[in-house]
Model the fold of this input.
Amino acid sequence: MKEKVESFLQSKLSQFVLRSEPINTNILTFSIKSEGVVPVIKALKEDSELKFDFLNDLTAIDWLGKKNPRFEVCYLLKSPSNKHFRIMLKAAIEDGEGIHSITSLFKGANWPEREIFDLFGIEFINHPYMDRIILPDNFQGHPLRKDFPLEGFGQDYLISDLLHIHQEE
Amino acid sequence: MGLTDILQKPGETLGDMAQVANLDAMVNWGQSYSLWPYPFATACCGIEFMGTACSDNDIARFGAERPSFSPRQADMILVLGTITYKMAPVLREIYDQLSEPKYVVSVGACASSGGMFDTYGVVQGIDRFLPVDIYIPGCPPRPEAIMDALIKLQEKVKTQGLEARRSEIKRKIEEINERNRPLIVR
Done:
């Protein structure tokens, strides 16, 4: 299965696949260009043999000071018809850049993408509703970035309307 | 010995059928044994409250057997667990809906001080925006600690009059407002 996926990507989508140094992991990993996310995942999903039609996870990593560009968006795909074989696709993007949404391919990518936007500040292009999902709507900053202080910047602005208690009567 | 003389001595038993008391003491006594709790459980302290309410420890022995899941029918709110900044307006709304007289019990380290969660999302103690009557230490506290707090609260309800209660709440609210004034960022 590993060779099949490798040869498929090299023969049909080689313009999007980047050469990357080997990573010590038990999961087959490919680095892809950020503009190639939608065509690569679409091809892997719709190929009649590979059939990576299950999105296991969608998350992001902040490699502040360790890698350039700074962020990596990770797509964990599974192929239920091939003994649940899994691959990981990584797309590196710089701070402030957007990446194309895959909600057109996987409806389930909607909330994970909003979560990534909430916690990392990575914007997804063509997403149906790009807004915060977990944190309060008026929250400032993106707390899973490595340069966000753990205690926050002083979060009292979030409940400033509650901090003055009035007594009735 | 007339009626006025008898009323001077509240608590005195007349025969074995009648006892003298003033109305305030009667009302407070009744209130102290029917403190219906509203469990605002957001974390593991809520599990500990379940243990307190169940038969091993049985909070019903002190008259607090009915966990009320409507704030309008509750006398005390037990804040059991971590309160985040997103949850704070909800808690405040529920506190406002409680019917008077209302008492706030802050159960556990998280509700009292934020506990170990000194992070961007957690309010560092509900006394930032609620007048708390009793704090319970522990992470989570044992059922005995929760019952101890209940007994202390009963003592308070029994002995504290309505006027003293009002002035205490007023003082606490003034303290909260005073403490928070310089902390507001924007």
Observations:
- The two ends of chain B are 68 Å apart (CA to CA).
- The first strand of chain B starts at residue 13 and ends at 14.
